[in-house]
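ok so I'm stuck.
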Amino acid sequence: MKKEDLLNDEFLKQFKNGDELNNFLSQLQKRGIEKILEGELDGHLDYQKHQKSENSNTRNGYARKKIKTSYGESQIQVPRDREASFNPMLIPKRKSMVDGIENIIVSLYAKGMSNSDIETQISELYDIEVSTSTISRITDRITNDIVAWQNRPLESVYLIVWMDGIVFKVRENSKVINKTVYIAVGLKRDGKKEVLGLWLGKNESAAFWMSVLTDMKARGVQDILITATDNLNGFTDTIKNVFPESKTQICVVHQIRNSCRYVVWKDKKAFTKDMKQIYDAPTKQAAKAALKDFGNKWNSKYSYAVKSWEDNWEELTVFFEFPVEIRKIIYTTNLIENLNGKIRKYTKNKLSFPTDQAVMKSVYLAVREATKKWKMPIRNWGIILNQFLTIFEKRVQL
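replied:
not stuck anymore, here's the structure
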């Protein structure tokens, strides 16, 4: 056994049970917090305790304060100054909770727990009584973060922007109605993904997307090389009005779902197999031939599905203009749908939201949780970047 392990064993033996160890650690934390506060006051007064100073502001004893930490409630001594201008950073005035507990509360809220569930969880785990109103005040502080995040400057160029909407039930004028949170995710020039913003509106429409795109432009976006969207009527024209050089790819997966909506069960296997010949074709010309065969076979039974492919043909087949590596990431909005799935997971316990602010707070926190691992470039980034530089050389380097 190592010497350090032996010392650790001997150290732990002095405590009869977990409560004694917890009490010891609580006292250790209390002393540590008080020492940090003394250091903060030294910095505020610009001289250390027992030193002589010409500063007219001097120490003025201590005040007692009850705080809440991960070890439970504790009473500490907070040093004061005569001018009452000292406001500690570790535990600011009018706060009784250290950042660690507040971060836990925000994290639990982000994962979909209700205020009452968080109250119970904190009480059981840390033996701290935190009221639901306190929890609400803590999570409400996120509102300022949302405003700052929503108005932050964006990059001048995004290689790809995926756009989609997710519907929530929100109370308005004593009624519960459907509202859409519009989400845009951009692929940056370093290969990393970024949620560009969240916008709340009523039913998803091309008109509202116009305001979203205009907001993105006002925040610094000058060019989007490729947009990936669902099959919303008028969406492509809306994008062209704001970013005229952007190529718009309608999500093929959405198109497949829409096409299969009215197909009877006994036909679905053959229908989807024939449809796959279209989007799996090696070239746009081969895809066009597959669409013709598809129409000849199914037009008599499912004319709506065939017509939908024909009407949206140009936007559905943009991906054929690009190499295979780029095709894989633009012909579907799976990336943003996966994000939507995680948002749903974190908000599923909330059947409806009392206000617009409440739904935005929950979705923002869910996005923050879901994107924590977005730190690496997308797969095959080196190859994809070179392809973008070859195709869009001048626009990539804008």
